[in-house]
Structures are given as C-alpha cells and as structure tokens.
Amino acid sequence: MTSPEIASLSWGHMKVKGCSSSYKDCKVWPGGSRAWDWRETGTDHYPGVQPADLEEVLKKGIDTLVIGRGMSEALQVPSSTVDFVRQKGVEVKVMQTEKAVAEYNNLAGQGAKVGGVFHSTC
C-alpha cells in the first residue's frame, strides 16, 4: 500500500487524494486517512500533540512520521512526544503545515512508508 497524496491544503481545509471527504485536521498513512479529532485524546495547542494522537498512524508500519504544527505553528509538539516516536524506530519530522505537507507528499511520491498528522489552521 502507498501513502495517499495530500491533494490540497488551505486554511481549515485539507483534501486527500482518493478520499471524497475533506478534513480540517487529518491523519494519513499507507492505504488510508481520516479526520484527526483532537477531542478523542483531549489534545489542545498547548501542551500539544500527545503520543495517543500518533499511535494509530504508528501502527500502520510507517518508517517516517511528518507532523504539521499549523499554518502559524501554534500546535506544540513536546520533546517527550518526539522521543516516543523515535523509540518506536520511526523517524519524525516536525514543521509548519505547508512545509510538512510538501515533505510528506515528496516522501509519498518516492514510495516511502510515510504517515502524517496535520493541523490546518493556526
């Protein structure tokens, strides 16, 4: 299975190739995608992304995880969360969402086993 391309990104709106719905925030992995609902784990901009937000994507057999912190990088990613991903043997890249989407699409286009979580607003 290949990681689906993120077809479009604008403030509050993301579209994944091959998926009929659009997302505000999303998770993607080889073979799939879904909305990233922060309410599931109680996530907020601070303290930010938690291991529980990433477990689903990490279980999909990825080698690299790309985290998009938002257009203005308001979403925090604690070092403990980065360490959690690395302890799973997965490379992690944390960046502003537009750059994160470009990096994710580049890796997916090369056939890499890449996953991502992306925040599309602040």
Automatic annotation (TrEMBL):
<keyword id="KW-0963">Cytoplasm</keyword>
<dbReference type="InterPro" id="IPR036748">
    <property type="entry name" value="MTH938-like_sf"/>
</dbReference>
<dbReference type="GO" id="GO:0045600">
    <property type="term" value="P:positive regulation of fat cell differentiation"/>
</dbReference>
<dbReference type="GO" id="GO:0005737">
    <property type="term" value="C:cytoplasm"/>
</dbReference>
<protein>
    <recommendedName>
        <fullName>Mth938 domain-containing protein</fullName>
    </recommendedName>
</protein>
<dbReference type="InterPro" id="IPR034096">
    <property type="entry name" value="AAMDC"/>
</dbReference>
<dbReference type="Pfam" id="PF04430">
    <property type="entry name" value="DUF498"/>
</dbReference>
<comment type="similarity">
    <text>Belongs to the AAMDC family.</text>
</comment>
<dbReference type="InterPro" id="IPR007523">
    <property type="entry name" value="NDUFAF3/AAMDC"/>
</dbReference>
